[in-house]
TrEMBL record:
<feature type="compositionally biased region" description="Pro residues">
    <location>
        <begin position="172"/>
        <end position="189"/>
    </location>
</feature>
<dbReference type="InterPro" id="IPR013919">
    <property type="entry name" value="Pex16"/>
</dbReference>
<keyword id="KW-0962">Peroxisome biogenesis</keyword>
<protein>
    <recommendedName>
        <fullName>Peroxisomal membrane protein PEX16</fullName>
    </recommendedName>
</protein>
<comment type="similarity">
    <text>Belongs to the peroxin-16 family.</text>
</comment>
<dbReference type="GO" id="GO:0005778">
    <property type="term" value="C:peroxisomal membrane"/>
</dbReference>
<dbReference type="GO" id="GO:0007031">
    <property type="term" value="P:peroxisome organization"/>
</dbReference>
<keyword id="KW-0576">Peroxisome</keyword>
<feature type="region of interest" description="Disordered">
    <location>
        <begin position="164"/>
        <end position="217"/>
    </location>
</feature>
<dbReference type="Pfam" id="PF08610">
    <property type="entry name" value="Pex16"/>
</dbReference>
Amino acid sequence: MASSNNFKGYEAWLVKNSSAMATLESSLRSLTWFLPGRFKDAELASEALAASLNLVSMYHDTLLAKVMQRDPKYRPLIPSSLHTRFTRAWSDKNMRYKWAARALELIRFTELVLEMGLRRKVSPRARWRSVVLLEMIKSVLRVILLRITRRPLLSPPIPERDFDPTALPEFSEPPSPVVSPSPSSPPATPSHLQNNRVPLPPHPLLASPPQNSTETPAEDYLLPKALTASSVKPSHSLLKTLSSHRDWLAEILYILRPLVYGKSAHTRLTLSLLVSDNRKSNRPLVAALILELLSRNLRRSPPPSAALERSEYARRDRDMVWYLLRGSIWESYTKPKLESFADITAQTPILGLFGALVKDWVPLIDEYYYCQLLPHPALDRLLTEF
């Protein structure tokens, strides 16, 4: 009973202070990008803080979503995004989807801090075996999500926070007893007579349009409310099911990319202990790129009306830029460019801050596998907020 009361009290406090909590989370998350390189094990402290913030944010999103669902009068000022509608619909419809998606996000939030801890405690071979094990678990979870929905995977697979914290319904206090007016007090003014001398503003549809306006007020009012094909579809059907073997193969290849890259890197490390000149092998990078391109060429071309699927494929195409942080591309091209940028901007007042940030993160990309697999969850949320 006490734990239930504490939970309800925390939920009420969160709803009341949701705006301040969102600001605090955003400020601390921005701080984590400037901690590496400031003191010993600063990168571990930074990543531990970032992982904790992501976990707390996911928990808060779950609580706030429950609060909104419990209030039948709550109507968001801005409609939920297609991604949020789809993922929330499947999370509410299928318990296996909800818990597999949450487990996948939990691993994604903590994988880098786990790798940092393993690097300090175990040998490189044991660390890479742990990385491959994590990638195997993630691949299994993604296959489970693919099997449940039979639709292309979205990233992230859980609903994102896309509502205004200040518009949340407030917890109502218990109604106070009504005190009847004393006989000596003057009678109260009836509600239908209160404030009846203040003129109402003219309705936009009845007001005359400006002389230089090319559209009528009715068009200005109706155009933002026009429905699209995605607006009237059921939320769990915003993505079309995978209908052919080619569609399934494209998704399977996309799921297997990180696992193949991690396994190839582990094999490269094992061979490097026996053959010294095998350390610079490009097999992991080439294998991952081949799977990426095969998946891209095999996937179907969604029609213009499939907005959610088109946005997901566009995100996958943009994520290919992170191959600049891997293998020989990183060693021979990206890393020298970033180091040169950091040296050039070292004395510049504003750019020097970004140069120092880049210089602090370059060693992390050299040492940690999951720093090469950006976008990082903290970067995702940071870009979303801005």
